[in-house]
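[step 3/7] inverse_fold.run input=structure_tokens len=371
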């Protein structure tokens, strides 16, 4: 909205409103998106939590077959804190981003759609007081539909770079300068796979206080930098990256995600006063996946989001091996529960996983230069 005001006053010859000139700078708007989103989440936090406690009563249901101390320590904690995150993220983005940019609307569409799915899932769990929400198959189909529509939006309406007209349907590879694999319309399936996979990977990671929040912010920071670089012709050319016209605006969305995460961490830091629930984890994971698709750095997500990948794979491997042999590889999946079973304290697991996330993000960013 503020960018529209800047363009309106500039086009109208109202140059005397000098403070609006700051809005033309992407870095300024990204910083303001961080600040705005954080203030919104912190401001609404206490009242929203009290309201959720009154509405939910027993709070998020805790799995009886899970970690036993969680039944005692976390019982009664309300869920759906993702609503707070989404409020900060959406408002921060809408206020500071260029709303004529198709990439902004694509990532917001995924965020809002996945947030609604997560909300419905959380609502079903709370009302039934069961860990079972929406049918897994139905949810996956809806997630795939939302993701494919967002990818289609980008393919159809995003500007095509003249030096690589097939870029919007192609996969770029880290460590290789100009290598592209054009999937044509099969890219719809590939892009949807990235977005759906990221959403569910973050969803599995969200099992301890603050465990998913900080790695999501780290990934958002990394992809915010990537969006800024690949959306700038000079930097993209210097780093030998594929230039993606207009995608720099996604950095504002990433900034808003960081700010919303910081605001939520104020209430989610151990011991958590509220859980983000599927409302937050699906929306944030899907948003990160959508940004990876928008910036054409999908494969790099497997490095930057390596912690999420490990959490998802631990569940897949555990289920597949148990069905095949009747035995478990991990003491419990996702893998953070395995370490709890080994006797690690919650704070130790969370902080060490944060450290791993930082190292993986740096490694992922390094691939931008190693070409």
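[step 3/7] decode complete -> sequence:
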């Amino acid at each position: 909205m503020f960018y529209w005001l800047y363009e309106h006053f500039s086009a109208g010859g109202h140059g005397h409103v000098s403070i609006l000139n700051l809005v033309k700078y992407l870095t300024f708007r990204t910083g303001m998106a961080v600040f705005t989103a954080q203030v919104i989440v912190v401001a609404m936090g206490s009242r929203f939590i009290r309201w959720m406690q009154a509405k939910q009563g027993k709070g998020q249901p805790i799995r009886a077959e899970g970690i036993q101390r969680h039944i005692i320590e976390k019982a009664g904690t309300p869920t759906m804190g993702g609503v707070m995150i989404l409020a900060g993220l959406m408002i921060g983005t809408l206020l500071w981003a260029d709303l004529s940019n198709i990439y902004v609307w694509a990532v917001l569409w995924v965020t809002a759609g996945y947030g609604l799915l997560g909300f419905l899932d959380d609502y079903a769990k709370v009302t039934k007081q069961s860990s079972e929400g929406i049918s897994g198959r139905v949810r996956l189909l809806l997630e795939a539909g939302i993701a494919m529509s967002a990818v289609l939006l980008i393919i159809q309406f995003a500007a095509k770079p003249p030096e690589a007209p097939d870029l919007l349907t192609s996969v770029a590879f880290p460590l290789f300068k100009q290598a592209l694999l054009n999937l044509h319309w099969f890219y719809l399936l590939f892009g949807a796979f990235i977005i759906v996979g990221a959403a569910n990977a973050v969803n599995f990671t969200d099992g301890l206080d603050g465990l998913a929040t900080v790695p999501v912010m780290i990934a958002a920071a990394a992809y915010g930098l990537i969006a800024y670089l690949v959306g700038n012709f000079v930097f993209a050319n210097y780093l030998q990256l594929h230039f993606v016209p207009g995608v720099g605006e996604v950095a504002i969305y990433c900034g808003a995600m960081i700010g919303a995460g910081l605001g939520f961490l104020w209430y989610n830091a151990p011991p958590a006063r509220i859980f983000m629930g599927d409302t937050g984890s699906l929306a944030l994971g899907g948003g990160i996946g959508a940004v990876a698709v928008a910036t054409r750095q999908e494969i790099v997500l497997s490095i930057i989001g390596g912690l999420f990948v490990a959490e998802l794979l631990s569940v897949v491997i555990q289920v597949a091996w148990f069905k095949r042999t009747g035995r478990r590889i991990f003491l419990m999946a996702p893998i953070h529960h395995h370490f709890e079973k080994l006797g690690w304290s919650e704070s130790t697991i969370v902080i060490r996983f944060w450290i791993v996330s930082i190292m993986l993000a740096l490694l992922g960013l390094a691939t931008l230069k190693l070409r």
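[step 4/7] annotate
Residues 26-56 form the longest helix (31 residues).
The chain has one domain: 27-302.
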